[in-house]
């Protein structure tokens, strides 16, 4: 069995901590930029009513076992009646979501702004990590892993003799990218 690697503390100080700190700061900056780029739209009263109606119908379906069957059937009829039901939409009048997006160009523009505010910082950060920190064995995970994790955790290191629990700096970037959601919800709030 191969001996464990001894990781230098300078790697922790000059690779792990700066990489994690930069990822947190870029995430906060990305949130603020996307908040500035977001257009303030006043909600359409009709869409708001429809959304509330769907929530009420969903709550009725969730509570179906807790109310009498007759009461459930009468409320369901109230929502789905073909003559004047609140949720009944005739076949020809249903609007396609894609057609709805094309009718409102602001929706497409907001989607594009949101995607750009995510893609550009992540591309630049990955290029920075790949340029400055490629080839570093950055950390060791404190639990054993199988060989299937090697490609994910040792991205950029071509040593098959190294234990799978060692993480490269490029993989540390991806672990931070997908694992900082809990920290961002603490810093920025639950809905972000």
UniProtKB/TrEMBL annotation:
The keyword Transcription does not apply. The keyword Protein biosynthesis does not apply. It is a multi-pass membrane protein. It is found in: Membrane. Signal peptide: none annotated. GO terms for biological process: protein folding in endoplasmic reticulum. It holds the Pfam family EMC3_TMCO1. Keywords: Membrane, Transmembrane, Transmembrane helix. InterPro entries: EMC3, EMC3/TMCO1. One of its GO terms (cellular component) is EMC complex. The chain crosses the membrane at residues 14-33, 116-139. Belongs to the EMC3 family. This is ER membrane protein complex subunit 3. It comes from Genlisea aurea.
